[in-house]
Hints:
Chain B contains five helices and four strands. Chain B is of the alpha+beta class and about 170 residues long. Chain B folds into two domains: about 5-50 and about 130-170, Alpha-Beta Plaits, CATH 3.30.70; about 55-120, no CATH class. Chain B has a four-stranded antiparallel beta sheet with strand order 2-3-1-4. In chain D, strand 11 (about 240-245), helix 6 (about 255-265) and strand 12 form a beta-alpha-beta unit.
Amino acid sequence: MYNIKxxxxxxxxxxxxxxxxxxxxxxxxxxxxxxxxxxxxFVTTSMLIWGIWGFYNxxxxxxxxxxxxxxxxxxxxxINFVWWIGIGHAGTAFSIFLLVLHQRWRTSINxxxxxxxxxxxxxxxxxxxxxxGRIWDGFFVFPYPNTRGPLWDNFNSPLFWDVTAIxxxxxxxxxxxxxxxxxxxxxxxxRTVSIVKKKIYGILxxxxxxxxxxxxxxxxxxxxxxxxxAPLVVSVHSxxxxxxxxxxxxxxxxxxxxxxxxxxxIFSGFAMVLTLMIIVRKVYKYEEYVTQRHLDAxxxxxxxxxxxxxxxxxxxxxxAWYSNSPYEMYVFFKNRAIxxxxxxxxAMITCNAIIPQLFWFKxxxxxxxxxxxxxxxxxxxxxxxxxxxxxxxxxxxxxxxxWHSYTPTLTEVAIFVGTLGxxxxxxxxxxxxxxxxxxxxxxxxxxxxxxxKENTKSHEE
Amino acid sequence: MKNKSQILxxxxxxDVVSTAVDELLRNNIPIKDVFSPFPLEHVWKxxxxxxxxxxxxxxxxxxxxVATFAFLYWSSVINYPxxxxxxxxxxxxxxxxxxxxxxxxxxxxxxxxxxxxxKLWPGKVVNLPDPRxxxxxxxxxxxxxxxxDEATVxxxxxxxxxxxxxxxxxxxx
Amino acid sequence: MIINKFVVARIPKVHCFLFPFFLFFLISYSLSSFxxxxxxxxxxxxxxxxxxxxxxxxxxxxxxxxxxxYPQSWLIKFIQxxxxxxxxxxxxxxxxxxxxxxxxxxxxNLTDAQVKDILLYIKNGGKLPAGVSVKKAPIKTAVATTQQxxxxxxxxxxxxxxxxxxxxxxxVFGILLLLSIFDLLFSHYLKSKWIHxxxxxSALWILGEWSWDFTTGLGRQQNYQPDQPIWFSHxxxxxxxxxxxxxxxxxxxxxxxxxxxxxxVCMNCHSQxxxxxxxxxxxxxxxxxxxxxxxxxxxxxxxxLPDFVYFNHSQHVKVGKINCTECHGDVAKMDQxxxxxxxxxxxxxxxxxxxKVQFRSNKFYAEYKKLHEELRAGxxxxxxxxxxxxxxxxxxxx
Amino acid sequence: xxxxxxxxxxxYDEIVKNSVSNKExxxxxxxxxxxxxxxxxKSSRRDFLKMMGFSVGAVALVSSCQMPVRKxxxxxxxxxxxxxxxxxxxxxxxxxxxxxxxxLVKTRESRPIKIEGNDLSQISQRGTSAKVQASVLxxxxxxxxxxxxxxxxxxxxxxIDAEIKGKLEILKNDDKEVVLxxxxxxSPTTRKLIDEFVIAxxxxxxxxxxxxxxxxxxxxxxxxxxxxxxxxxxFENADVMVGFNADFLGTWLMPVTFSxxxxxxxxLKDGQTKMSRLYQFETNMSxxxxxxxxxxxxxxxxxxxxxxxxxxILAEKTGNxxxxxxxxxxxxxxxxxxxxxxxxxxxxxxxxxxxxxxxxVNAINSLLDNYGKTIDLNTxxxxxxxxxxDIMLAISGMQSxxxxxxxxxxxxPVYDCVHKDKLTKALKNLxxxxxxxxxxxxxxxxxxxxxxxxxxxxSWNDAEPINxxxxxxxxxxxxxxxxxxxxxxxxxxxxxxQSFSDYLEKNWEAIFFPKQKTFNSFDKFxxxxxxxxxxxxxxxxxxxxxxxxxxxxxxKPKIGALELALYENISIGTGRYSNNPWLQEMPDPVxxxxxxxxxxxxxxxxxxxxxQQEDVVKINDSLELPVLIQPGQTEETIGIAxxxxxxxAGKVGDGVGKNVYxxxxxxxxxxxxxxxxxxxEKTSKTYSLALTQTHHVMEGRPIVRETVLSSFIKDPTSGNxxxxxxxxxENFSLYPDPKFNAFQWGLSVDLNSCTxxxxxxxxxxxxxxxxxxxxxxxxxxxxxxxxxxxxxxxEMSDNPEVFHxxxxxxxxxxxxxxxxxxxxxxxxxxxxxxxxxxxxxIGTRYCMNNCPYKVRxxxxxxxxxxxxxxxxxxxxxxxxxxxxxVTVRQRGVVEKCNSCEQRxxxxxxxxxxxxxxxxxGEILTACQQNCPTDAIQFGNLxxxxxxxxxxxxxxxxxxxxxxLHTLPSQSYLTKVRNKKA
Lengths: 461, 173, 398, 981
């Protein structure tokens, strides 16, 4: 049970149930769209359009428009893919882990985090697709019955595992997200006066009633789906890690990768949640829902995870030395630490292992601006981590004759920016059209976790 | 059917609903349903409601695992065995795919079961006894049968009001 | 006719095409001691296209008495490669060549002994010596009746119609699907929901079937029966006239391509046969035109494989001893040749998985010692193509 | 090998007539069984692969969008030996004016697609060089002239013949000289024809012109032996070889022959433990230098002194006259000792075109008693007959007006003559200027008439590269364009209607046929000659001429001055092959650079001058070239490759690099590539070079394993300790060992034999339809060649040891690449090959990452029909070189070496249809077949008696990165250097 004395109030500002409904649904029921939303949409649309150019260029001209070469044949695309997948872990980690652990402070953040998951995973999913040399034959990765023998897929390939894991993850987290929104859609359905909205949200709510039996089954189904999806959080990024760990490349071939990646994913995901929620609470004035205490809790988690990351880095380096394999040692001591990509390596160490340690100071945790900046640093650091893993390892592998460096091209950057645009666009759409906090859940925790004043504020009618 | 109507007790506070339910049950008044904006765990318990969805989910998971294994084994060992990298055709890699697909089948079929059991589908038209139950009201629904006399109705009405209902309404279904 | 067809249809396919081989093998084995083999008769079928024995001049001369007219050694040389002889300036050869409209006699890949056998056969007036009786391989003679032609055509026509019907119903059901979804969600015109569900499910089924059909058909052209520049009937040539496939497609045993016959091969017969029964002079005249204008005839390829597939005819026909009809269908019954099989990879593999290799008879396979041992030990009863790597990708794709 | 030789032209008739010259009539050219596919639009799903070449012709699309109608167009009349789908081989001769090679040409559907070495030749002995391999592409060069040209416009032969004949007559009557300038002509029949031409037109003066002559050697031999010849060398008989700036494995005189000989003396197979030793004294790091056991750096100006020093030591020991010389720091005592120990079994050569130096070399060889043993003066080499003074005389004749006309055959002096400015000016006023060039090159551009010669694959000819060794050129295809052989042009102008083939035949009947006794009919003799491609007339043994020495004198080496050492590049040679994209993209075996020439400087010099790789420097204040830091380059010298900077080579070769022919040292009157004093100045510009390798040392990894001969004799596994350890360790694997039914194809590369000549790279490129990607892509690290020759230095020092290591797909049994392909495009075959199925590949490139050897190549762009990659795959003509058995890969597909699967299948099928077992050595991979040093063996590893198994069964065998337990089928043999431990 939530202990207010220890943890503090979850929802501040003396809210009533009706206030919650109103606060959450007002932005999407209001007829006018705020100006900032249009400006942000314009910016992200332009990013998206640039990204679409990148996609077009790649598909029409060839993968040659990227900076890859015969030695470094994975680059920006895979870096961004892993990065996005990592971010896509926040939502699920947040809502499902905390749901399963009965951490009630998740309630005001989980919906947005899940939305983030969906869009991040969608953004991530674009990369393996555009990364293919022959995207038009991409359907070959699915083991569908065919007239070629039939010829199936190679089930040993980590990429095949990737395909199954990511599509499963996307499906499962989308369904979980959607199921969670059903009662909220019903709330909106009943609240809106616009016929169109009533119809649309009515369809989306699937005819939700909110009866006791309905809630019982709902809770049961949601918990089951959450419980089933929870291992996915671990497995998806473990499988993504196996893309590398199952490879023979020095710097990749390492058993630490799966847990290391999962932790990294949670790290970057939480950081992204932090970044996003700081903006959202500011813009939508949700300080009462996403309280200082929420941010504090996330910051503490980040500090802890950052320490794990640091240990992971150290143990990787230690193992490289301990293995006595000249190839491994070269990767860590020469190529990463003092090689062509030393900046990226040290940026990774600094952003991921050192800067988050500032969260030890309460003052910094309390300073929203600092928290925001550090969360951005973590995002950048995690991006560099993927860069270091993918590029430095590949650029100098076994035979020195094949060593070649890699610089991304404009097309690759465009695609990355495009997915950023897509992601932000998705979030904007989410903020505009979907309940960004779980109304029913907020109501559920309202009484237990807040000092509620006499329930007289309910609307008169 | 036509003459069926419902007595609706509208409450403001979940805790009050809980006591009202107790009160009604004590008076042997059958509660048809309780509509609330968020789940009220104690109400289900009091009304002795249960669900068997978890068993179904377990079944789906097991079926997903078995079906995946059967497919993988058939396709890569029996149907068209190809050697990849010197590994045997029946490999450990199956475990990973089985794990993931078991979850997928679990999630999808659980949702499907839930939707079917709850009779939810897009476009379903509903008439809530009290639309405010999705906002801030908690509604106890008591079915009023043909044979229910006025006295009982009044008793229920009183009972509800006494338990803390802000209003008691009648509705025709 | 009908009865015949019926019987044939009931003989399993494999036996059907192996039977002549088997028979041939049996006969040639039993007759080898006679010095005159039934092989000669078989070999002479090649000659029959242009020559008769006592039947008068055809494309080439009547062969009656040819054995006494020319020395045997000269005949052997001429039969094996007439052009060489002509080029070397041999008088007799040049004379014959000029006499018969300068139509070169195609060279024959026959050994001296085989030619001698044929000569003996000719000397005997086209009969095998007494005491040697030969069972003729049962060759199904197909009489070209218009009715049959129509049947053939209709068969493929129906196939095409079938796919068209599916397309039409897919469109209809697609529209129905959209309508019923709309009605289910918005208009509620039909009150009984089950009608919607029935429509949606059946529409999905039809659409699925159609898209399966469409996608697997991409790049394939089963039942493809294009019009050829010349109305050439395989039924007449291979069926009625029983011209051996390899008479025209003569590189099938030596090359990856079976080979489309050069116009000069057509001219072997058509320098004499100038009129067809059904087409009159019109179609045959196209050959003459081609030769006169030096413009090759542009046949349309019927059985197509994608470019990334390496298929070698000699591997299958010579080494694998596969009958042409296995892949091309019974061409002898088709007027216009059509692609009978789908020629998909699955279709290829299916055969590779079932088909036996000439494992014992071809010395090449001696290298597969383990399989030989297993065969001897009775662990396996046959060696299929699959067992010697016939399922490997790089057998056909490189 | 099933060889089909070509018998007579008549049979050949119908096939290739009109071929590509007029596209309207293309269908006539088509061959039955070949598909004629019109590709409408780019992205039809299946039509892209295996461009058969014959993709022209109007074909309508019917019925469906997905399958275009394909036509099968038979010939009207099939020549007997032409079977569609079956290759024919014709024996012929490659001679481009510089290099000679006897070859077999593989033709498919009557178009030459591949060149193989002729194993009957005693000179090239089945070996070829990269240039020879690539020469087939020149046949399909778009810039070839389509017909005779007059004043820049296409004309017809009749007019041109009449006009030229008229002008020749006028000049004859005016008694003006006409210079017939040809490259070295080794064809006895052509020489006879030219003599007849000179008789017909007495005013014609015939001179031979070589871009890089060897006149000094001829002169020295004239002085020493009274024989104006280049002797034939026998490197295989030499125990000790000393080279002075002679890149005899790469470019000098007869590199293929010498490589073959060189490797023979250094093979360590079948228990042989004897190995010859090579000392190399050189300025640039040449291919030969990179293969030397001991390599000494000398400046060009020091060469004479070093040679004289060597001579003096030898003379002292043998009691001969000693001459004064300047002391040089190079220590030659060890060389001298070694030479003396193997007297009569040693060989000293110098590639410097300086008579003084050649005299010293002769004197040393004479001291060492090498004549008659390793040097055969009686068997003259007929290559390089050009004399520098001839062209000087000709130019001055033109200037003075004495010369009225000039005919250029197979020479391009306007590009590669030192005096090209003078020549250009002199040409201006000449009444008759005729070129026989096949393309509109720099010289042809200045000529009034261009009478394009046939490509050698369309020609008749004979050749006598070495006295008594004849070889024949016969056409393998009808002339594609309206071109005419040079010899036939001469015949026409002599009012003869004879074809040159008749002339050739008559000449052989008259002169050579009587000399032999084996054949009694000329037809048989002639057939045999054409079939074999070579014919030798045994020369009677003669005693070697007596050496007549003179005083030797060496000039003082220049100190402190920067000296230039020009060199001939192994790929594009003298510039003749500038327009050949295969050669342009062939990485230089030493620098690994492609598509450019550059200034090679030593690391020390670069440091001193503050030069970085790719900095642009100014040579002699005019020529700007980028710097390439080359370990092994002598300090205070720079090296630049000739043959670049063509302005009229064609779209591929134009503007690639800079022309440095003007920098040739002519101080002695001879064209000496070495020793021009130059100045070098750093500019602020940089210019990026396309290198295929950016890291040059092995970082202590056991990649190329080496040992020295003495250790090897003691322990055959020396240097290969890793492998011994690997075998000793229990190689625990989770998975069972791979099992194969009958075949496991394996290939072994003898690193001791491999010189890095890159013949295999081009051979593979030609066989497997490998695309050319251009300089920018090479720079990005996207070269497509399936074999790369890794070159490592022992250290990045001033004089490192060099290793060459060809790396193709190693066909691992535990292939890491196969595991990771999601779509099963890679799998392992029943015969131990790692198969790649292009049409299944979706291009995730995971396999490329996971290949430790990085032998997989990705099609980053569509390299076919793409104007951005305007090489042979972007032209209908250029595509005719494609091998129809091999798929042309689409963009987005990963490809790699497949051990010439098509050849394996071909030979297996042959064995099956002949009802016999497969013979060992029957299957030859493209890289193996023409290797001039026989460094590559291929065969069945399961057969313990096979060549490759026996080769592997020595202590020298190891697998690359074997500790990874990838179990490669391809193996390497350790490199053994014959030097002190």
